[in-house]
Amino acid sequence: MKLIGWDHQRLKELVALWNSEIGMQFPLREELFIQNSFDDANVLRSGSFIAINDEDQVIGFVVSKCWQENLDVQMNHDIGWIQVLLVKSSYRCRGIGSALLGKAEQALKERNIKTVHIGRDPWHYFPGIPKNFEKSKTWFEKRNYVSGYIEYDLIRHDQNRPNCFNPSRYDVQFTLLKKEEKHEFLSFLQRCFPGRWEYEAIHYFQRGGTGREFVIAKKNGNIIGFCRINDHNSPYIAQNVYWAPLVNEALGGIGPLGIDPNERKNGYGLAIVEAGISFLRERNIHSIVIDWTGLVNFYGKLDFVIWKEYQQMSKDLSKELKR
Cβ distance 225 to 269 under 8 Å? Predict the structure, then answer.
């Protein structure tokens, strides 16, 4: 076995390994892998490696990331990520995973990263280790990773339900974002939700987004809330439709969503989710996923149920940086 650098020429082999190991639960498309693990400017090339055997076959890989983009958004430069670490089942317990992780962590330390998360990266696949991957969790624990919150993907199927959303019940207007409202919307995000959600919206417009993926709530002419909705026509593959091949019909996604802190506790949050569902139904989408959330009871009010679970895991590298 030897480790080689991150190489786009190995794309098909990498995707084939992923799908042979975890594709039944998380089916990976080549375009998604390119989007998240090659095109993301935050991929740390010096900390991303491919393991090959003596026959030059891919038997494992790791992708690590740290913040490297020149964007004026609030991102923590002390945090790094292991986006994915995967070893072929028949080659496990031979030190390959440890070698891959060690190389990734060393590269992150050289970038002065103080905390490393499993998943949760920009253009991530997972917000943690899939909960049913118990052996993976134990493996990382032995390497000083500690558990955090449980996160969930939720799903709702409503082919036979009437569309009962009634916007007249509220003193705000729910519309799809118009192109000419782009700068107002980005200013709203910068003011109320600086950081990741602002970052994702910037990339959305950079990739040709027109506004159809954002439901906005307006009160007295001002944006006071938003909800992202995604489908197969969105300008890139969004997080809540990553695993669309598992659903035998068009899949839509909802989230993130946020309400101006000064306007909360008025029912607008649940209402804007209802509006998002309504807009997706108009596109003939009846299966909807909400990804990476802990608000199971909140979304349960609209009949979303748990689909997938993830265990957050992180490691403090700062102690090792001092050695």
Answer: yes
Domain boundaries, the chain: 2-152+311-321, 159-302
- Residue 259: C-alpha distances to residues 12, 105, 152, 323 (Å): 42, 37, 21, 44
- Strands 115-118 and 79-87, bridge-based pairing: parallel
The tokens of 100 are what? 């891959």
What's 159-302's CATH class?
A: alpha beta
Backbone phi and psi for residue 247, each to the nearest 5 degrees, phi listed first: -110, 130
Say which CATH class 2-152+311-321 falls into.
Answer: alpha beta
> What are the tens digits of pLDDT across the range 123-175?
999 999 999 999 999 999 999 999 999 999 999 998 677 676 777 777 899 99
CA–CA distance, 202 with 186 (Å, rounded to integer): 8
Q: How far is CA 46 from CA 34, 61, 103, 113, in A?
A: 18, 13, 8, 14
For residues 207 and 261, the answer to whether their CB atoms sit within 8 Å is: no
